[in-house]
Amino acid sequence: MAGRFELSARQVGHAYQKSKYWARLERCVSCTQRSTRCRQSAQISCSVCCCGISRRCTLWQQHATPPESTLRDVTEAWLLPGARPKRLAGRIQPSGRMFDSPDLKDNKMITAACGEMSGQKRMRPEWPDRAWAPGPLKAARLSPEPGPSWREDPSALLGDLEKLCDHSPQQLLPFLLDHDCQLQQVLESPGLSPAGVYTLLRALRAAVESAGEPERVQPILALALRPAFILRSLLGFIAELEHFEHQEGQISQAVLEDTVAALHHLLTAAPAQTKTLLCHPVDLLCASVQRLQSRGFQFTWILQKRLHDTQRLVDAAFPRHGTPSGSLVSPAWREDFHQIPVFPTPEEIFVDARGKLKRNLTTGKYASDAAYLDTHFRLLREDFIKPLRDEISAHFSLRDLFRGAGKPRRALRLYRNVQLVTAGTSPAGVTYMASFQARQGSGQAASKRLLSGSLTCLISSDCGQVLFGTVVGGKGSALRQGAVWLDVKASHRELWRRHLGKTSFLMVESPAFFESYRHVLEGLQETEPTRVPFQRYVVQCCTAVAAPAHFGDDVTFDLSVLQPTGPAGTEPVGDTPEGRVAAVDLRAVRPCDALIWSPETFPHLDESQILAIRMALSREFVLIQGPPGTGKTFIGLQLMEILLANQARWWEARSPFLVVCYTNHALDQFMEGILRFQPSGVVRIGGRSRSDKVAACSLRNLRQKQLPGLLGTLEKHRYGWLLKSLRQQKESVAYRTEVLQLLRRGILTARELAAEMRDDGLDRSWAAGRLDMLDWLQIQPPAQETPARKQGRGWTAGVQDDLLLRPRDERALDEEEELGPAEEQHNIAQEKFAYVLPPEGSSSDQWMRRYLAEGDIMPDEDLANVRDVGELRLRDRWRLYRRWMLAYETELKETLVVKLEEYEKKAGELAQLTFQEDLQVLKHSRVIGMTTTGAAKYRKLLQKIQPHTVIVEEAAEILEAHVLTSLTPACKHLILIGDHQQLRPKPADYTMEKKYCLGISLFERMINNQIPYVQLLYQHRMRPEISQLLVPLFYKQLKDHEAVAEYEKIQGVESSVFFIQHTAAESQSADSESYSNKFEASFLVSLSRYLLEQGYTESQVTILTPYHGQVLKIRALLKSKDMGDIAAHAVDDFQGEESDIVLLSLVRSNKEGQIGFLQDKNRLCVALSRARKGFYCIGNLAGIAAGSKSNLWKELLRLLKRKNLTGEGLTLVCQNHPDTKTVVKESSDFGKIPDGGCTLPCQARLECGHPCTRRCHPYDRDHSLYVCPFPCSKLCELNHRCPRKCKEECQPCSVEVKKVMPKCGHQQAVPCHMLADLWLCQEPCNQRLECKHPCTHRCGEACSTCTCREMIDVTLPCSHVVRTECYKQKMPLTCHEPCAQKLECGHHCKGSCYECVQGRLHVHCRNKCTRVLLCSHPCQEPCFENCPPCKRACPNKCRHSHCDKTCGEICFPCIQPCSWKCKHYRCTQPCAELCDRPRCDQPCQQSLQCSHLCAGLCGEPCPPKCRTCHRDELAEIFFGDEDEPDARFVLLEDCGHVLEVRGLDRWMDGDPDEGQAQHVQLKVCPKCSTPIQHNTRYNNVIKAIQQKIKEIKLKIQGNREELEAGKQQLLHRLNNDRDLTAWSGLGRSVMKTVSRQSLLDLENTLNFLASLCRLKEQVKRCTVARERNLKRKIEAVERWVGRKRPAFTAQQLRECRQEIKRISYLGNVFERLSGYENQQAPLSTEALALANEAVGVLQRQEPFTQSQEESLQQLLEKIEEQFPAAELPLSEAERVMVTEAMQFGRGHWYRCPQGHLYTIGECGRPMQQSSCPECGAAIGGQNHVLTRDNVTDDQILEPATVHIALLQAENRGQRDQAWQRQTEHFSLGEHVAALRAAAGTQPG
Fold this sequence. Notes:
Elements: H1 9-18, E1 22-27, E2 34-38, E3 44-45, H2 66-76, H3 107-114, H4 148-152, H5 155-167, H6 172-178, H7 180-187, H8 194-210, H9 214-224, H10 227-239, E4 245-247, E5 250-251, H11 253-269, H12 274-294, H13 301-315, H14 346-350, H15 369-396, E6 414-426, E7 429-435, H16 443-447, E8 455-460, E9 466-471, H17 476-480, E10 483-488, H18 492-499, E11 505-509, H19 515-526, H20 535-538, E12 570-575, E13 581-585, H21 607-618, E14 621-625, H22 632-650, E15 657-661, H23 664-677, E16 682-684, H24 692-696, H25 699-710, H26 713-742, E17 746-748, H27 754-759, H28 763-769, H29 773-776, H30 799-804, H31 821-830, E18 833-836, H32 846-853, H33 860-863, H34 874-923, E19 927-931, H35 932-937, H36 939-945, E20 949-952, H37 960-965, E21 973-978, H38 990-994, H39 1002-1008, E22 1014-1015, E23 1018-1019, H40 1024-1027, E24 1039-1040, E25 1057-1061, E26 1067-1068, E27 1075-1076, H41 1078-1093, E28 1101-1105, H42 1108-1120, E29 1127-1130, E30 1139-1145, H43 1161-1168, E31 1171-1179, H44 1181-1187, H45 1192-1202, E32 1206-1207, E33 1210-1213, E34 1221-1224, E35 1296-1300, ...
Parallel strand pairs: 14-21, 14-22, 15-19, 15-20, 16-19, 20-21, 23-24, 25-31, 25-32, 28-29, 28-30, 30-31
Antiparallel strand pairs: 1-2, 2-3, 4-5, 6-7, 6-11, 7-10, 8-9, 8-11, 9-10, 12-13, 17-18, 26-27, 33-34, 35-36, 37-38, 39-40, 41-42, 41-46, 43-44, 44-45
Helix pairs in contact: 1-2, 3-10, 5-8, 7-9, 8-10, 8-11, 10-12, 11-12, 11-13, 12-13, 15-19, 18-34, 22-23, 25-34, 26-31, 26-34, 41-42, 44-45, 49-51, 51-52, 51-53, 52-53, 53-54, 54-55, 56-57
């Protein structure tokens, strides 16, 4: 309908009033139609041209009284003026009385049906008071036989019909047929209510759709087609339809669907009644629906589609022109095609937009450039939309019982139960995973489904929403599991809010591959109409072709590359008049030199090839037609080589050439040819190359190779930053989606829901009850399940920081294995949940899944009544939890949408940067190759590169729009190579191809418009017998090259070309439109087997067929016969290919004479021209020729009969017996010749003298593969007969004989051919090894190779005894004896003797630590001097937020205003600062739930205990004042205890007069010792403690500047110290250091390793034995140092230092002794004894102590005296500088008079005085008594004891001075020691 119909009941009533003034019928003066004259005016008014009220020229008989004309005016005067459709001119009905029923005079009924009249109130006397939607009537009962009740009350029949519709719709039709009389009464009843009308419509629909044959339902429809029912009851029902709402203001969709379906069935059953009767209710229904839509009512797309289809049935009876009628208008109807979206819209799925389509002009020019672009854009867009529209329409259309079965439907690519489950990221942007019910089908069919780039249409289950998306990265494994990633064209917010995890879709995949359309359509829209490339030819069709503009007027070409022998200077050309041969310079040839362009100059080219090359070089628009086998690709490569060689002559800019092909296979072939003469500068764009050579020059590979040299530093940095940013965004999105997926099977922690609790005002109730989420919901996880670790809401700050900056133990030397991103995100997501259900549900957890899935949440009204969450019932708890979870999910989705938008923005920036990088690579290329789809996709790159020359291969097979988008305005030379007489372009829709000529290529259209072209004339492929099939049926001038006449005859077949005739019937697949023929498939497979038996290889045979169904059948048969390597293709997929032998299956054979694809002359041309040497075709040739609409098949059949190339059987000839021939007519006939020859025996005499026993076999004629079955007759030297076959090679005789072994004398059974000297005696050996144990080898084996495995006891150097195998006693053995020595920490060492280096270097203590940390949590790490920072969740929180870090990290201060206030005081400071208000001691005036006054204080949380109700509990004496009548109490929120305020104030404030140093600890609850951290009354006390804790954490961890300086010093040392070159890998551990302690540990490690490296250099000067001894000791220390440990303890540092010193002393002595031995200097006995004594001291097993070192010094002095002074002196022992660990884990903290912090170790009490390093004040004390002006920080640190106390200086100036003084000699540890010395303190 043109325009929107606006009709109301008021207007209908007005039309009724107006109809009273019309009486007579007269003729209209303008249109000559009968019209009415108004009684009040004499003006003639026609219902067609000028009335404005009546819709059609329906002629009514004149009536004197208004009531008789009322129905006419009501049915026709419902449309507003100006809204009449154009089709009305055809709806002229013949004159005559239309209705004779007396019911038409019932004014009451008419008034009720029309509704309000002139503003009066609507009357509905006949309509029931209840809602009119149909339902079972209580009074109606189903009666099997008609009774008198129906004659009295017809509504009883309606009740029975309603029940049948609800419960037994299949019984409706028999019931209606049995009660047709009663049905007639009901239909003619004047008082039929709308509910009754609807019941009848439902019954009609159900009856039609359940009927098997149309004849059964015709009588019922004839009754319904009565004018009284249609024009009174049905029109009244439709007029009142909008006044009966279904729910939420929406009209019932079911009511409309039933109404539309009933009308549709009536129209299809009685199309003749459309003009006279059925058009009225359809038009009124369409107008009503359109009016309701304008008022905001929503109707499903399927309902609108069916209504549109019904309206089209009416429109078909009234031919008209213009836009389509109805409310659905497609965007394709827009005038400007630039405004049409490329993606389809829901309207287009339900509207056929072909009214705007124009045919592709096969001849003649276009009106304008814009018209040319518009035509191809609309045709191409409709080509991919129409198949999808047709499939959806066929699926959702109503059943048409009256129009026959029609054409079988193609298998619909339908996926049910589709849901969008999660979001993901790809390089192109954001994608969504769609899960669906996986299909169970063949792998071949499934492999072509949901390919990357395919278009999908998602239709919601209620048909109210339609979405479109493209497949991204479709993979077979994921598809088989029922999942695919889609790029959905909708907003992220809308998808997450309405669809993800909620909406169930029906997904339909488009049959047309969308990716090949999308980029071409976008390219057409971007093409400016004024800049169409080669507009003169493609639009205007000018036949005068100009020369290439960029060549110039006097251009010459170097054609030496055309010579077969390679480039040369001259070439002889013909004879001159003088009889001499002239030489022509081919390096400067003009296209106009006719003498040169001849076969004499280029003998390897024929005349047509030379003409093609000449035209290509002289014209800017070139068409080269190449029939089959004429060398189209060869000519294209020749042209490319010429242009590349001559580019510098006419184009200085050297713009690259562009090669465009339709398929990837053709492009690979062309690019391989280019690489032969242009090995560099070639780029292939696209990632689907199957050629290794071409893939090496793909854009992706070249980008990786060339970009580093093309990009600058700034571009590289930006690219890396974008990649890193995208990776972070990707991890963030994956983390959030993982949390959303876990929400439906996980229970969030209370910490995660803290914000939701706070928003609902229930956070205090939750905290007061100290509830656990799992206990609160009464969930008991299984024993093996451990609830996830509770974390804060990490996603609010961004998960990428958590993932990239997660702390690690940087003190470990070995790299730790980190989790992958997916596992990492999964683990982080699970940390948000207290418990997660397993994916596979069990019966025990079904109740929990049911609770999580319920939709009942607690509303605000119920929430207002909640006081204590712990007292709620279980069901209410779950309702409240779901409320919190929903709020949590909503917030998470909002942040996720933001992250997705950020990701798409970053992905776009990266794509733009990649575009610039690709541009850099392509600018340095000479040839660019791409497919037509790739050219459209990368058109912006081409526009920047501006290729001046484009060569298009397969041009006649490419759609014109594809070629157009491959060109740029800069293109000056276009060469199209193809053959329009072979395959044409293949549109997706047959209508687009035949009716709109979309299948006509640009190549063919230009030839049709007389554009000059060249045809290649000589074919080099087919033998003459094959090429004669093409001439003259397809080509008039095609000639054979002389080379094809030399092909050998096909072996084993009488004729090399033959057509087999048969009459076996075809078959059609049930789920596709393709055909197959089992008879032909079996015959060709058997023929293939026979050809292989003739000696042909599988690569020489190819089977072709026009139908894909036959291809699948042939491939299955080939695979079953073990011939899977024989190629089987559809004809359309084999253009451009060739094979030695081609077998063709025509498939079609039916009685109707339908031949389908075989009508196509182009397809037949391809099929007949693919073979080189042999061609065999099978088909029903006579039936095909009879069914053909042209004479082509008839002429071909006559040709075959004339040359005897056709028959009912193929004659096979035996190669060995040529006189033996076999005729095969079907597959079973090949069984007569099972070996491919004949049935005669071979009997050929073999080389061995035996005869061949096989049947005649043409293959293996020299019997090289034949194995003679007769036994071998040869004998060995001892007359043993050979056991092998005659043809097999004889092996050495293996018969065993007795022989005596010459070496040992044993007698052995030895093979006959084996010599006794070479035999290995198998008797046991009786010799003994060096260890005196018996040898376990055999007699013939050498004893030296025997490994003794006797178990013996070995005493190790550590004096421990170990039991081991004998051969291991000379190896270094590991002692596993427990160390068991007592460590300085008081625990026994749990290491082994080997691990502890014989007790000299102990491992760290492995006992569990029991200390209390700074945060009051117990330490969970093993025993160590310095406990590591606490890793538990930080308890610091306030009313505004909570800290989400670990307890050991420094918290961020809250900057929100402090919330501590009451009606007397109010704090004005930020939350983290000390409050500026006093404590309020006024009583609280609030009442408790028991109605008694609160016993607490003003502004503080009310204690849950009542002074009256809980008097005994509150009056319990604790501080002493609890029983006072005015006592007030405070609630400790951390533990829930209630204490008297005055006593608690003293407890919290402390005793100011206490002078003795007290035990340091946090303030805790005096009843339960729970730390007090959250209480507003004691805010200042708590905040002061937190501030001090922060200062101490800062002291322990160190500031950033100090750490960075220390890192740089260690890195500098690693890079420059030659002793540490082997340990440069420690630099990574240095960079990951985050604390002072870790830095000191690394420095000690470097010190130890450097000393050991120096010792290694020293031992090289010793003798070999001494060097081995020292290296073993050094390696043991190296292993100990490199072992993973938390940190070095003081004991370990001391032991390692002493051990290195011991080895150093020993090395010095060994070096002195080795020096004297090497010099052969004499040594006195006394000196040697002293040296041995020193060595004995240094090689003891016990640790090297200070006393041993002192005694050793005396020995060394004596040795120095005994050895000559002029000889080698003893070098100094290795001194290792060790930095002692900072001891913060034990001790007490204090403040000096100026407030500076310091700590005292050991017992934690002061034993000596010192001075503060920062201010110089006196610190410390005597005899456990603190100096008077020093302050105890007894609210900061836990109680503990420490071995060493370290006074930590923070004065930057003193530190810098100390560093500057010692910079040349001090390490970091020495710097700390210097600070200690400056402070004047000693450890301990």
